[in-house]
């Protein structure tokens, strides 16, 4: 499986951010069962599934084992996998992160933090190309305080747009058909920023977090991947398979109106 195949699927990404407190006295077995049920039920309606690494890491060794099991299960179901870890480091450490989440899981994607510079991102770009995967670099994030750094002016334009332009140029080396393996993260909570980034980086897949609970609405357009976690994985604030199906249908309906 090549991650870029996700761009030909329904433009909805399921975010899996496990909350053990919602899964009773034995959270891991219940969480495993519920997650697999949701993945199987929603698979035809999804572009990909995004696993937020922090929530699995917080569960210790059992959580990491669960992550590997769910990622493998998603792949068996034909679902592209995106690891949301916002990784970024220099030299051999960047190479190790790339090995762990891209080369060890061919065809998967990983979110990246660009703060350390282009040389720190290069190992991830190469690994994505080698493995048939992709990367999504943080540009304009969905949180309210994103503008603290991301909106600073650089050459009479906001930093996030400068970054998008630079990465669009870098991404040309990693084009596969119409799309690059170098994508960008732009919060659905900032639709004007989505439009500006799309104009600056026409070949970059855009991951749009913040749909649903953070107030973002699904956005239409080629190469846009609308990501929803709480509103889709825990509709009504709890595990609810029927509610997850209803929420997915509602989000997809909004994209064809």
| Helical/strand content category | alpha/beta
Number of strands: 10
Q: Per CATH, which architecture?
A: Alpha-Beta Barrel
Strand order of the largest sheet: 1-2-3-4-5-8-9-10
Using the coordinates above, name the CATH class. Alpha Beta
Mean pLDDT: 96
| Overall body shape | globular
Structural domain tally: 1
Q: Give the radius of gyration.
A: 17 Å
End-to-end separation:
31 Å
Low-confidence stretches: none
> Sheet with the most strands?
8 strands, parallel, barrel
Order of helices and strands: EHEHHEHEHEHHEEEHEEHH
How many helices in DSSP terms?
10
How much β-strand is present in the residues? 15-25%
CATH superfamily: Aldolase class I
Q: Return the CATH topology.
A: TIM Barrel
How much helix is in the residues?
40-55%
């Amino acid at each position: 499986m090549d991650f870029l195949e996700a761009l030909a699927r329904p433009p909805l990404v399921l975010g899996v951010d496990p909350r053990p407190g919602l899964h009773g006295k034995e959270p891991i077995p219940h969480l495993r069962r519920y997650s697999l049920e949701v993945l199987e039920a929603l698979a035809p309606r999804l572009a990909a599934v995004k696993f937020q690494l922090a929530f699995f890491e917080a569960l210790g060794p059992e959580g990491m084992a669960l992550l590997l099991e769910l990622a493998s299960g998603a792949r068996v179901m034909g679902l592209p996998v995106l690891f949301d870890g916002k990784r970024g480091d220099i030299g051999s450490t960047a190479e190790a992160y790339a090995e762990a989440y891209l080369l060890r899981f061919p065809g998967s994607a990983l979110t990246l933090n660009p703060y350390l510079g282009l040389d720190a991102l290069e190992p991830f770009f190469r690994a994505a190309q080698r493995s048939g995967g992709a990367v999504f670099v943080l540009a304009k994030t969905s949180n309210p305080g994103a503008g603290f750094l991301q909106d600073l002016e650089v050459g009479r334009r906001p930093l996030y747009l400068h970054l998008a332009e630079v990465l669009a140029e870098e991404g040309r080396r990693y084009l596969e058909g119409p799309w690059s393996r170098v994508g960008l993260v732009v919060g659905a909570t900032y639709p004007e920023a989505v439009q500006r980034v799309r104009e600056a980086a026409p070949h970059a897949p855009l991951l749009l977090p913040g749909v649903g609970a953070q107030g973002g609405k699904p956005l239409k357009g080629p190469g846009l991947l609308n990501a929803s976690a709480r509103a889709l994985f825990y509709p009504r604030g709890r595990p609810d398979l029927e509610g997850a199906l209803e929420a997915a249908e509602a989000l997809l309906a909004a994209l064809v109106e």
